Amino acid sequence: MPDSESFFQKNEFLIRRLHSLSGLVPVGAYMCVHLVTNASILNGSETFQNAVYQIHSLGNALFAVEWLFIFLPIIFHAVFGFVIMFGGKSNLKNYRYGGNVRYVLQRATGMIAFVFIFLHVFHLHGWFHFDIWLKSVVEPLGGGQFLPYKASSTLASALQASFLIPTCYVIGLLSCVFHFANGLWTMGITWGVWTSPNAQKRAGYLIAAGGILLSLIGLSAIAGFTGLDAEKAEEVETQMYENAVEGKRIPAAPHKFYGHDENHHEEHN
Questions:
Q1: Got the DSSP string for 64-100?
Q2: CATH number of 7-268
């Protein structure tokens, strides 16, 4: 008799464990670092730009780091998250207990977070960095707005283009944070970190406080960029870029400063 079990069914225990673990490391850990880095804009565009310089000091290795430790884990977590999601059913209509509400919210925020991250990466980075892709698809659709060496000004301009954009970012941010925090709490139960009702309650309070703090950090970053004077920030970034290249702190990289604006590139030269 042929084996009719799917790959997921055969490896369900391992996949569920890897799925929950990937939500903490590296996906959740990266989100925390990402939000804290973005919140550095509150100290001024120079502070944020220095943080971006540090990230891009990885050079060609940055591409591998992004895919191995950020994008592929996010894709894995999202794909198997949907597999798990559509394999379970909620009793919310019959039993409105807190656990059941969290069950539904975890899945709802997971879907919102997936769509948000998908669009967020396109909006700022265009998914891929091939010239033909960026020029023919991304830029006509308003994507690829972020330039690493004009980090704060381009990010501010991207968020200030419409009041709907920061609104979507707030919804996406809060969904990501709730999904991470609630997932961390359930992960602690799954992995046997907190098993008694009292331990679960204490962990719930602690994680809720951490989630609120993380939300405030993320919201402060959005507020910082939406309220930033992009023109003044660009003046600071231009001076920083020229000084950094002259002092050999960073290599000259016109595509990271001008993007694909060939006219400005030629004028500069």
A1: HHHIIIIIHHHHHHHHHHHHHHTT----TTT---HHH
A2: 1.20.1300.10
